[in-house]
Predict the 3D structure of the following.
Amino acid sequence: MADIVQKENLLVRMQEDIRRALEKPEGERRWGMVIDTRKCVGCHACTLSCVAENKLPPGVVYRPVLDQEIGTYPNVTRRFMPRPCMQCEEPPCVPVCPVNATYKRPDGIVAIDYEQCIGCRYCITACPYSARTFDVGYTYTEGTPEQEVYELLPNYEYGVEHARVPGSEESPIGNARKCHFCLHRLEQGALPMCVTTCIGVANYFGDLNDPDSLVAEMAAQPNAVVLKEELGTKPKVFYLV
Amino acid sequence: MTTLATPMPGNEVKSPNWVQWVAWALTIVCLAAGAYGLYLRFTEGHAAASYGSYVPWGLWIAAYVALIGASAGAFGFAAVIFTMRKTEYYGLARLAMLVAFGAFAAGMMNVWLDLGHPFRFWKLMLQTSWTSIMGWMSWFYVIYGLILVVGLFLTRKGVIPKFMERFSWVAFLFAIAFAGAEGALFGVVGARALWESGLTPILFLVEAALFGVGLVAAGALIFGGMNPKAARMLGVVMLILLGVLLLLEWAEYTTALYASVPAKSSAVMTILTGPFWWVFWGLHLGLGVVLPGLLLLFGRGNVLLTGIAGALIAAMGLATKLNLVLPALAQEELEGLAHAFTGPGLTFSYFPSTMEWLVWLGTLGLGGLIVLIGYRLFSLSTPTRSSASK
Ligand code: SF4
Ligand code: SF4
């Protein structure tokens, strides 16, 4: 592993892994992520790059970084744990959706059809990782002397243009929202924004079905764990501890 | 006031009395508050509400489950009366159907306004996902609403058709399935330790029956549709249900506390000792269980006390459901989440906003209006009898 880290440009390798995966039929890919908590310094760059990429309004967050304290004073350490959607293999958020707006794609990503979602928020209650948030309709600069134009720019989640119309209930306002591994970038062969941005390359991303991919290699490390394993949700986000 | 205690064979009632005027006044106040709340809801959207991402459901969902439960309970009560051919309570059973409809409409209004996209509600019926209890519930609501309307219409002249008596047991089973499924809506959510319990649907059933009968007793007080015999019967039913409710709650809370699995025990501790401890101890236990229990015990057969006890039980149903919905959601699912990223709605504390209270009042006003108008529309003041007794 030390070799990998020192000799290769990991981002380039992951990019290559993605290119290979995209050549396969969608159902044969299994997108996954490994987060190395030992490399994460808690800078929150991934959180903010995600906010910028997906034009997330106040109150909506896809990838917060949890700051956890271990031990009692004076013997304490800190651990940072970024928490994207786990893209569960057995996602509890899917069967509860009363209108099939939340579904698992053949490549394993759990997606939301914004136009189908009625905003009941049942899925938010069902997610054991609090990975879903509710878009209430805020903008950052509403009510200030000038509503900033960038806030009203459309986002392109799921490869669809979604304009933001404050004061309306036009999707994604009124919807449940969550991380989708930057599907719109992925389908163009680009890494999720958080992976690209991470200053310490603490994230590995790719096709877990490809044994040659970096992410599969990392997920197979003996120190790779998933959150709340006992629930049987089979997350596709692993943590190296 | 004399009308309240007058024995009424056949359940004929005298109206209006002063209690009805108070009911009208309260209804109008609630509707006025609701109109302003509705204005805020549609001009400011969900931004004017306190629920958000970490506590995604609030007052409205608690009110919705309380009202729908009470509705199913009142409906089930009517179905039992018809099934058992208890003709002396037929008037009460008709009133039960009417309050069931009022509570149902108010509950539906709460949940409809809670939707992020209220005008997409039709998808629930036309694009239903059958893996979701909520999907099933939406169809149950359609069927239930239809049954109530048809039932009220068919009995509008005070004559209960024979087939209604014969098939009311089906309606009773439906009420059980309906109220139980409402509980399953929460019971199947594995992510929330407080909800995920086989007891949840049973608890919902008992609460539904209790709040429903309470609502009927309160309605009977308002419309003068209760004689001492009916009061005694309602009182006994409520006392039994109160006892069962306490037993179930005791079982649920003590097992959670003794098992000490933090996800569940911390939710129970939030209920018992959290910032809103008074909702459990004061509103639920004090005003919703102990006080009505005492009124019923010491005022057996007393129309006024039975009606007041019923009203307290039904009103405090909201506190019971608030304790179900909120503490379960107010638990950090992953340590550090509360402070990881801040913003509106990214908090684990919740107290309803003014808009939420106003809209909620409005929905109660709507339910009240339906009952008050329906009382006249369906001639509930006329004596009720079975068509078999023609
Ligand atoms: S982490 Fe939550 S939102 Fe993501 S797939 Fe799993 S249950 Fe669904
Ligand atoms: S909020 Fe939307 S995605 Fe979530 S359960 Fe409701 S309809 Fe489905």
User: Anything to note?
Assistant: The CA atoms of residues 187 and 382 of chain B lie 42 Å apart. The pocket of iron/sulfur cluster (ligand 1) is lined by residues A 85-88, 91-93, 110, 127, 129, 131-132, 178, 233 (CB under 6 Å).
